[in-house]
From TrEMBL:
The gene is miaB. [4Fe-4S] cluster 2 binds at residues 167, 171, 174. Catalyzes the methylthiolation of N6-(dimethylallyl)adenosine (i(6)A), leading to the formation of 2-methylthio-N6-(dimethylallyl)adenosine (ms(2)i(6)A) at position 37 in tRNAs that read codons beginning with uridine. Its EC number is 2.8.4.3. Pfam families: Radical_SAM, UPF0004. This is tRNA-2-methylthio-N(6)-dimethylallyladenosine synthase. Binds 2 [4Fe-4S] clusters. One cluster is coordinated with 3 cysteines and an exchangeable S-adenosyl-L-methionine.
Length: 456
C-alpha cells in the first residue's frame, strides 16, 4: 500500500499505546507514535477513546505474557471507538517470538508486528482498517532503517537515543537475542549528530540505549568504541548522560576512564550481576566470575568513589543451592547497591535454561528472594544517607503521585527527589528545569527536602 493511501485511511484516527518492559521498548513506542503522527493520527489519553490500540510487549518474564493477554481481552469490553471501528495491534518481543501463535491466547488482535517490522506498522494498521483481516509481519531482519523513523518523545527535556540493537551474549536464561537479533551498531557520527540536534531542541538529558552498550562498535570497527562515543556525546553540550544496559564482561578500563572524565556522564551505573555464585554465573553463560565482578566494582569506585551502582539479580535459577544463594547475598552486602531489580527466575521457552529441571520448592525460592530484598533495602537506605544535608540538583519530571503539591525529580545518581513546589511557581514552569534541593530526609527509595535558589 502506498503512503498516500495509508494517510487517507489513518488521518484523523486516534491511537493509544501501552508499553511493557525495558527502555528499548519505550523508545520503540515513541517511534510507533511518531510514525502514526506523521500519517495524521491523534494521540488519545486512554484506550476507550482510541481507534487504534497498540501494545508494545516484553517477553523477558512470564508475567508479561499473562498481562498482555488480559489487556488485549479487556479491549473487547471497550465502548465503540470514535470512528466506529477499532484495530488492536501487538508489537515488540512477544509479537516477534510468537507471531501468529499469539492468536491462540487472544482472538481480537488485528495486527502483529515484530521487533524488526516497526517501520511497517502504519501500513499494517491501514490494511486492517481497509479489509478487516489480520495482518502479521515478523521479519528476522530489518529491511528498513527503523532508526530513521520519526518519533514522538514523551518529554521535551529527555530523549532515549538507541546506539545499537540486538545482543550476541546468549545468556542461558534470556530470550532477547532470539527476538532482537544480533548486535548491530548505529554509525558513530549519526549518533553524535542526533544528540547535537536534540540539544538544539532543548533536550537536557539523554539515555543511550542498547542491549549491551559496552560492545558498541565491535561490528563496525572490529573493537568496542563505547568510550569514544561517551566522550563525543559529552562534547555536544548535553547536560546529563545515562546509559543502559552494561554487561560486566565488556566494561573496559577506557570506558571507566571516559565515565570519570566526561562531566556530562552521570555518577550512576547499572551493572547487572545476576548471581554472586561463580558456578551459577557459568551456568548462565555470563562469562565472568564472582571475583571478576568484585574486581570490576573496585576499579569503578577507585575512579568514581561516590558512584551509585544498581544491578539485576535473579533468584532461583535452575539448580541454585543455598550455598549459591548465600554467595549472592554476600556479594550484595559487599557491593552495597544503591538500587537493585530483583527477580525470581522465570522460565522462557526456547532458552537453554528452560531445559534444566529444578527440584527446589517454590517456597524455598521465595524465602531466599525475601532475604535478598531485605539486604537491598538496607544497602539502598544506607547509600541515601550520604545525601543528607547536602544540596542535590534534581531534574523535575512532574509531581508526586501522592501529592500534586510536591515535586518529583531525579538526581544525577538517578535517585527520586521530592520537594514542595516553591512559592510563586507552578508545576508547568518547573517541569524540565533543574532545581537544587536541600535534602533533610533520606529514605530507602527517595530523598526529600526544600528547593533553594532559582530553577535553571
Amino acid at each position: 500500500m502506498d503512503q498516500r493511501s495509508v494517510r487517507d485511511i489513518l488521518a484523523g484516527k486516534t491511537y493509544f499505546i501501552r508499553t511493557f518492559g525495558c527502555q528499548m521498548n519505550q523508545h520503540d513506542s515513541e517511534r510507533v507514535s511518531g510514525l502514526l503522527d506523521s500519517y495524521g493520527c491523534l494521540m488519545a489519553l486512554d484506550p476507550a477513546h482510541a481507534d487504534i490500540v497498540v501494545f508494545m510487549t516484553c517477553c523477558v518474564r512470564e508475567a508479561a505474557d499473562t498481562r498482555l493477554y488480559g489487556q488485549c481481552n479487556s479491549c473487547k469490553s471497550l465502548p465503540p471507538s470514535p470512528s466506529g471501528k477499532r484495530v488492536v495491534a501487538v508489537g515488540g518481543c512477544i509479537a516477534q517470538r510468537d507471531g501468529e501463535g499469539l492468536l491462540t491466547n487472544v482472538d481480537n488482535v488485528n495486527v502483529i508486528f515484530g521487533t524488526h517490522s516497526i517501520a511497517h506498522v502504519a501500513e499494517l494498521i491501514a490494511e486492517a482498517f481497509l479489509d478487516g483481516k489480520r495482518h502479521i509481519r515478523t521479519n528476522e531482519h530489518e529491511d528498513t532503517d527503523a532508526m530513521s523513523m520519526p518519533w514522538h518523545r514523551e518529554t521535551q527535556y529527555h530523549a532515549w537515543v538507541p546506539i545499537m540493537t540486538g545482543c550476541n551474549n546468549f545468556c542461558t536464561y534470556c530470550i532477547v537475542p532470539y527476538v532482537r537479533g544480533r548486535e548491530k551498531s548505529r554509525p558513530f557520527e549519526e549518533i553524535v549528530d542526533e544528540v547535537t540536534g536534540l540539544v538544539r531542541q532543548g533536550v537536557r538529558e539523554i539515555t543511550l540505549l542498547g542491549q549491551n552498550v559496552n560492545s558498541y562498535g565491535r561490528d563496525l570497527f572490529g573493537k568496542p568504541r563505547f568510550a569514544d562515543l561517551l566522550r563525543a556525546v559529552g562534547d555536544t553540550g548535553v547536560e546529563r548522560i545515562f546509559f543502559t544496559s552494561s554487561h560486566p564482561k565488556d566494561l573496559l578500563p577506557e570506558t571507566i576512564d571516559a565515565m570519570a572524565e566526561t562531566p556530562a556522564v552521570m555518577p550512576q551505573l547499572h551493572l547487572a550481576v545476576q548471581s554472586g555464585s561463580t558456578r551459577i554465573l557459568k551456568e548462565m553463560n555470563r562469562r565472568y566470575t564472582r571475583e571478576d565482578y568484585l574486581g570490576l566494582v573496585d576499579r569503578i569506585r577507585n575512579r568514581m568513589p561516590d558512584i551509585a551502582l544498581s544491578t539485576d539479580i535473579i533468584v532461583g535459577f535452575p539448580g541454585e543451592t543455598e550455598e549459591d544463594f548465600e554467595q549472592t547475598l554476600s556479594l550484595a552486602e559487599t557491593v552495597r547497591y544503591a538500587q537493585a531489580y530483583t527477580f525470581i527466575y522465570s522460565k522462557r521457552a526456547g532458552t537453554p535454561a528452560a531445559e534444566i529441571d529444578d527440584p527446589t520448592p517454590h517456597e524455598v525460592i521465595l524465602e531466599r528472594f525475601n532475604r535478598l530484598v531485605k539486604v537491598i533495602e538496607t544497602t539502598a537506605h544506607e547509600y541515601n544517607q550520604g545525601e543528607l544535608h547536602t544540596v542535590v540538583p534534581a531534574l523535575i519530571e512532574g509531581t508526586s503521585k501522592k501529592n500534586d503539591a510536591v515535586l518529583l525529580g531525579k538526581s544525577p545518581k538517578n535517585q527520586t527527589v521530592h520537594a514542595p513546589i516553591p512559592e510563586g511557581y507552578s508545576i508547568d514552569q518547573l517541569v524540565g528545569k533543574i532545581v537544587d534541593v536541600d535534602v533533610d530526609v533520606a529514605k530507602t527509595w527517595y530523598l526529600s527536602g526544600s528547593v533553594v535558589g532559582e530553577p535553571r
